[in-house]
Amino acid sequence: MQITLYQTNSEAARVNKNLSAIDTVDAVPTDDFDILAPVIVLDYDAAYLAANYVYIGLFQRFYFITDRAVTIGKRIVITCAVDVLMSWAQYMDNNDITVTRSQAAGITKMPDNKLPIIPCEKEITSTILSSGFFTKTDTNSYLLSVIGGDNT
Amino acid sequence: MINTEIYGDPSTWSSTQYVPFAKTVNYGATIQNAELTDGVNAGKTPVNELLENSICTAALGSESLYSNIIWEHNGELATDTADYTPYFYANCYDSSGYIADRGTINTNFPLYNAWKPFQADTGGRQNKSLHSRVIGEYQPKKILYELVVGVCPSDDYWSMHMYTLGEYLGNSSLQTTYPKIFYAGLRAYFDSSTTDTPNRELSASVRLFGACINRELTPFELNYKIDYMLCRGFNQHYSDTHIPLYGMPRTDILKGANNYNFCLAPESDISFERDYIHIMHDNTPDFINYLIQQAACFGAFVRISNDSGLPTSTIPLDNNDIICGVLVNGVGHGDYTRGVDNRNNDIWEWQTNRDSNFDPYNPPDPTRYDTTTVFGSSGLLNTFVQYYALSGAGLTGLCDNIYSYVNSVDTDTEDINKAIAKTFYTNNPLDVIISLKRFPFDITQYSSITAQPQPVKLGNLSIFNITGYKLNGQYTVMDFGSYDCHPYFGNTFLDYAPYTYYELIIPFCGSTRIDPAVFMGHTLRLKMVVDLYTGACTCYILADNLCIDSVSGNCAIDIPITGIQSADFQNSVQNAITNVKNARINTAAYNMRGNLAMSPVWTGQIGGNALFKGGAAARIGNALSGITSSLSSALHFGGNVANAQKEEAENYIANQKAEYDLQHVQTPFASVGSQSAANSYVEEMQARLIIYRPKFAVDYNESVYAATEGHACLINGKVSDFTDKGLTIGNVKTNSIVNNAGMSPTAAEQAMLKNAFSTGVIL
After folding, report:
1. pTM as predicted
2. What is the complex's ipTM, to 2 decimals?
């Protein structure tokens, strides 16, 4: 079973990871081979110790290398975990998704409780809306109501 | 939006040399039998389909008959390819078949089938090759409609004539001779020029035709069998045809002799005259307004008058003879602009009728919401009470004038109480004053008042040296400021409650918190309504022109008025004078009796009497008990005092007391109103809007936050929509995933995928 060892510095959440190939080698599976979390035994090569990512063509899957160990007999045992994003996300283009947070969305009308708003502070602005009505003038400002007279 | 499935791509639409501004829909070169199928383009005509805003007269809305094409046959909707009649058209024109058809029709029905695509029938009314088209696009300013009316005498329905509304209304003799209106429609002038200055001509080869209502009319039968009605524009005297207005059809009745059974007619108010149904209307202002509103519903430029005298072919569209319908969400409701205001109508800027935002397939809420709060006016209803606006200085001497009047009454010749009551309608002059209030503004600037100040009239007494403006209305409504509410944070959630909130501080009314969501993108307006009678004020808070909230208070200070209860005063004086007179009469009567029979006793008592005077004088003016005490001591001093002497002393004391009372009549005071609090007068006299906005943490970095947390949103789409969009968090469907080798993820992997998307991926 051939595997390709890679080194990647991409974050785990990235679907399309930047990969630098180290080597393609024959690998020997351990007794029970878990497709999602395989443990593989390799002949020792110091360069393999730099690998943190692996592709197993037989399973059409990419894996994170989660652990490695050098054992007696000049062997390297690598423990892997499937990277479902790299393995499958490229085939999900037409799948429906409801995005609830997005880097590209910017601040939207959806309330964001994570946004670092300081609850104890407010920015206060003040605007005068009116002028010239309540002038407190003395001119014709008294209203005398009386009984009598005509309504002319 | 164009329904290309029905009408084909606009590039396939036909156009003619007569109306180069308009594109016509090419869904059928010829209306003939068996061409009608399912409304697909290329030779077919749509069945019962809504016309798009690019096609129909959008302003009438999706419910308009003009916005639909319906095929019917004997009252039934078309269901197959049989020979059906296209029933409703909008802005259609006929480029060639009109004249020919007119010449071939049955002479018994000279106007029948003159304009409409109509099935061939056995009576020779074949439609020939009538080239019907729906105008797909046109520039609104390239069409000027003219409102025309069909009129006739009251007693001669056959003497019908056609005039433009302007001609008819501008000639009173026409209105007298032809008082009945039985038809109204729009004819069109098309402008082939490229500028806004119209050069319109009504081409003889361009025919407007339309449809008119019949659904709402109730069928009935007279001498003819009536199945349904066909309507058309009136065209007896004009070569052009019209789009009839709603409710204004001219209906042909086909007699049943040859099985031409058409018609559906209204139940009443009609006249059968020959082959026509006329719905007669009186020429009233209300009905004319109805016609104009109906024309305005088309959302087009319409000439309604001839005041300018300019020919329709050259009249500018901003002339006062021309209106333009106002559309709300693309639908007309009868409102319109007129004259120069047409330039402010959105339609003025439209390049094509497709600029209407009306979409028949997604029509707006058919309910027309009233978004304008109307503040009414109020007249002065209380004719018994007068209200005078005075300056502070003008009040000086008001009370003095009342005193002066009271003092001017000659009590020797006139009963003062009667005089006061006659002048003031009451025995207390102060009772005619109801209140005196001070307002924080010049009352005359904001209310209906008399042109000139008038003497204040108290009851029936005019005080000529004190004048004020009399009020003619109780309420005053004033604009109290406005504010255009714009988003501060890019119209995001931060611009709305609870993160941002608005608070209004309004003089005399306090403060109130308002929801930014109601006002965002609108103008916040304040209107202050003041009841001048009571001082109550209410500040109405409007979003644009719709009242949303209100707060109330009182902006007047009550000023108390104090004066004399003059009637009580006069009564007290009169009583005291009467008492003095009585006392003196008693004394004189006693002295007369004493001189006649009791002189020795009188003489012997001088010493004691003198002492009595001394004892009484020390206490006079006090209570009667004190006087009695002095009297007892005097009698005791005099030894054996006779009853006559006692009576003399009592008369003397009564006399002294009456005179004292007269000299010390207390002035009774009364007051009108009481001083009210004036704290609000030290407030700011202007309304103020305070906006509270959230503050970010000092170290907030938007780009870092977006890359690590992502911004909250709610976007539905496909996974591929978010490629290269950075961090994406959401819920994804994991079905139907197959790689190139035909493998699919296991259930565990699908769960892992869901988990990965829910915590964030970078696609």
Report:
1. 0.55
2. 0.90
